[in-house]
Amino acid sequence: MNEPQFLHRSDDRHPYAYKTKSRSGRTNLASCVVATVFLLALAVAAVAVYFFLFKPKPPVIAVNAVQFPTFSVTNGTVDFEFFQYVTVTNPNRDEFSHYDSSLQLVYSGEPVGTVFIPAGRIGGGARQKMSAKFDLQKYPLPAPERAAIGGVNDGSTVGGVAPADTMEIETRMKLVGRVRVLKVFMHRVESRVKCGVSIEVTRGTVLGFRC
Questions:
Q1: What contacts 139, CB < 8 A, 6 or more positions away?
Q2: Are 122 and 96 in contact (CB under 8 A)?
Q3: Which residues have CB under 8 Å from 81's CB, separation 6+?
Q4: What would the DSSP string read from start to end of 143-190?
Q5: Parallel, antiparallel, or unpaired for β 205-210 and 120-122?
Q6: What is the spatial distance between Cα 90 and Cα 69, in angstroms, rounded to a whole number?
Q7: Cα separation of 68 and 87, whole Å?
Q8: What pTM value is reported for the model?
Q9: Cβ count near 41 (within 10 Å)
Q10: Mind listing the pLDDT tens digit for each residue in 74-88?
Q11: DSSP 3-state of 49
């Protein structure tokens, strides 16, 4: 009597099933690595563009002239009216808005006073001329400066004016504001300029200034 025979199915139809799954996992891992590297490169490029093209820069202040329409020294005190003319350049691509700006005068190392500059706006890449006015009344001169300005009649005077009849003041201008970056973010910027101004006290003539 013939015994029944059972045929066993073989998986020979898919001999590489495990190997195919392994290759697919490796492909996914490689894709993730490539995507990560691409995103990192994109982030680095974005940072580079920001720093070279859109990084907020402080405004540039150029002092054009200083004037004293009135100036007098009497009885150890000084009175004058002072103007400072500047050109402010906005080097950024976006608008610069200034709101906390001032001009300070310093004489003999001591602050004389401060005048505040009205708020305003300067377009991207634009220039704007500005002026600041300062009035000083009856400011007492320190004793050493009072003696120096008074001069000494030792024969070196010309028309009653001694060569030493000069004084020097210092101006300190500050511009503070915000720059909009990429039309979304606001960034605070600040610029300062300091100038020394030499004046002939008998006429109030500006002999020169340096910044």
A1: 77, 78, 79, 107, 112
A2: yes
A3: 68, 69, 70, 71, 133, 134, 135, 136
A4: HHHHHHHH---SS--BTTB-TT-EEEEEEEEEEEEEEEETTTEEEEEE
A5: unpaired
A6: 30
A7: 19
A8: 0.66
A9: 10
A10: 888 889 999 999 999
A11: helix
